[in-house]
Amino acid sequence: MVASSLATRGPRSLLRQIREAMAGDAPAQTKLDMVVRIIAASMVAEVCSIYLRRAGGELELFATQGLSPDAVHITRLKLGEGLVGEIVRLGRPLNLKDAPHHPAFAYRPETGEDPYHSFLGVPLLRGGRAIGVLVVQNRTERNYGEEEVEDLQIIAMVLAEMVGAGDLLDREALKDVEIAPHRPERLKGVRFSDGLAYGTVVLHDHPVAPEKLLSDDAEAEATRLAAAVAALQQQIDKMLEGHHGLVGASYEVLETYRMFAHDRGWNRSLEEAVRSGLTAEAAVERVRSEHRARLGQARDPYLRERLHDLEDLNDRLLRHLYGDGHAPRELPEDAILVARNLGPADLLEYDRTRLKGLLLEEGSTASHAAIVARALDIPCVGRLAGLRDRVSQGDPVVVDAEAGEAFLRPRPDVVEALNSRLEVRAQRRAVFAGLKDTPAFTKDGAKITLLMNAGLAVDLDILGETGAEGIGLFRTEFQFMVAEDMPRLNAQRALYERVLDAANGMPVTFRTLDLGGDKLLPYMELEREENPALGWRAVRMGLDRPALLRQQLRALIWAARGRPLRVMFPLVASVDEFRAARAFVDTEVAWALRRGRPAPSRLDVGAMIEAPSLVWHLDALLPMTDFVSVGTNDLMQYLFAADRGNPRVADRYDPLSPPVLRVLKQIQDACVETGTPVSVCGEMAGRPLEAFALVALGFDRLSMPPAGIGPVKQMVLSCDREAARRGVTALLKGTSGSVRSQIETLARKLYVVA
């Protein structure tokens, strides 16, 4: 039987022995051999092995006690291959009772490991990246205890820093070991926010390894920890008191964040770790590892988001322990922020004048970081698999959010090509800025109204800078998505009032809650659905939860305070749904009047056309509405039965194809016939070539992200609408497949910037 690892000798004794072994002038291999012997003896293990990561990505056996010495520098495993490769892939420990029967087990006959069954391996992590693996094995079938796992993690933490600092191996021995990535790499991801940028990597969660892991005075460390936690809580409380100019969704983000900082479970875990003999800094790292192990593999998106919040809190707490918790995050002039994901309020804390781009390993186009990046016009690429393991602090990097790519440590020719593209974009931006106050008329005199999509408080600050003539779509659900509890009536009313005040008389169309599907709320228990995009969401949820919908309508009417109000219901699939939703509006207006509150001076109620079913029932719907808006994002995915959140199929179908253009023309013609105002508010409206097609089909109200207004206005000013109408109409007859190239050719003939 194996003893309780370091319980007998203590981790301090083991680490002291390792440091003493490293202090001599012995060759590098001799030092490594001494280290594995010391660890094996202390852990009462029959095998102890160290694997390090080569520059080519393979994991090589560098030292072993118990396996065949002939296998050293011979046995190699690819990333993800064998149990050692699996540990690097997962980034967490692997504890097995019967290792040879694990599906990832890869037998290497030269090692002679046949007799050994129990297996415990932990990654050597440095800079958030696995540079190797430390393994202990025994013949007896057993699972190693929690204390043994924790002890081995502490040892691995120290070894990783010694390897990285050159204390364990000299430069010659390390020449082919990939302590940090160094080769040029190109990663393909998903565009979250358009643009280009070139700069220096700043790791959002840049870890600083604790200089000291074991404390000599547990009480003193507990006092240090308590003081740092109190300072952290005070800092977040102060952020909320000052608001930092944030309201609505951004303010709710900080409210959620404060709750985690005061969480008793988190605080208790830190205290227990310090009482066990760790320094305050090491305690934070240990609690971080526990949360990663518990939540890192969670499939539930809410649980994964909670892990990001806790990760960021740990980083903030470490900064307080190191004495710079209140210091602003220093950025170089050309900072490219790199993170697995961003927790609440993170992006808003960085100096926007220095932050040139954002790269994320995870996230989605609907994530907090992506939404804020678009609002701030920061180029952002997400879903970059393996990103965090492939970059180091200070690396040069290119963000190509036009193509959804990142170039790590780019070659000179890539940088040269990027600079040329940046120069062209700068020239175009100057042109767009000059057009801000120019009315959007086509060359043949048709007025096109350009509106802005919004949903965050930061969007309101740039409304005047964009040249938009109002807000064509205000997404009210963001306030709900970032809150830990249901926003109360006063909180909703305050946000809507702020939006109307910022618009200063320009029209604002509020879309009621579009929740459900991929927009989950932590405080609402929702059943998992096999097809959430087709399930219980948007107006369906509102009609089934009338108190939720009525409270929002009440807040909107109250916020209007006698001003004009435009309300729009999302994902209406039947005329009966719209009729029922509109009845709630009438009920709430009557409720306000009975209590002496003014009704809106003008109340327009509309529907979003996103479900194809409405296209064939417009004759009944349009007379009941004051306006309609076409949501091309959802309409596209339903037309083609292609989930727009699935990267495998999201770009498979082209919006510039006859099915889409014919449906849009049918909607436009029906609205003209009934005199119903209609707008388009999907992504299609914000891209010049697609907007050209919309204008040609007869649409004269387009709502888009702020960055799209300048390019689309330039297109409108150079467009002959009648000529465009004739050309696009001709393309709808008897054509198969996308007509993008034909529309682009037509646009160029008409001198349109596409």
Task: Please name the defining characteristics of this protein.
elongated, TIM Barrel, alpha/beta, disordered N terminus, Enzyme I, Chain A, domain 2, eight-stranded parallel beta sheet, Beta-Lactamase, 754 residues, eight-stranded mixed beta sheet, 3 domains
Task: Please give the structural blueprint.
Blueprint: H1 11-22, H2 28-43, E1 47-53, E2 59-65, E3 76-77, H3 82-90, E4 94-96, E5 118-126, E6 129-138, H4 146-165, H5 171-174, E7 185-188, E8 190-193, E9 196-203, H6 218-242, H7 248-261, H8 264-275, H9 280-295, H10 301-321, E10 335-339, H11 346-349, E11 355-360, H12 368-376, E12 380-382, H13 387-390, E13 396-400, E14 405-408, H14 412-434, E15 449-454, H15 457-461, H16 463-466, E16 471-475, H17 477-481, H18 489-503, E17 508-511, H19 538-544, H20 546-560, E18 565-569, H21 575-594, E19 603-609, H22 612-615, H23 618-621, E20 627-630, H24 632-640, H25 658-674, E21 678-680, H26 688-697, E22 701-704, H27 709-717, H28 721-731, H29 740-749
Parallel strand pairs: 9-10, 10-11, 11-12, 15-16, 15-22, 16-17, 17-18, 18-19, 19-20, 20-21
Antiparallel strand pairs: 1-2, 1-6, 2-3, 4-5, 5-6, 7-14, 8-12, 9-13, 13-14
Helix pairs in contact: 1-2, 6-7, 6-8, 6-10, 8-9, 9-10, 14-27, 18-20, 19-20, 20-21, 26-27, 26-28, 28-29
Describe this structure in words.
- The protein is α/β, with parallel strands linked by helices.
- The chain contains 29 helices and 22 strands.
- The chain has 3 domains: 5-174, Beta-Lactamase, CATH 3.30.450.40; 210-321, PtsI, HPr-binding domain (Enzyme I, Chain A, domain 2); 435-749, Alpha-Beta Barrel (TIM Barrel), CATH 3.20.20.60.
- An 8-stranded mixed beta sheet has the order 7-14-13-9-10-11-12-8.
- Helix 26 crosses helix 27 (709-717).
- The chain is elongated.
- 47% of the residues are buried.
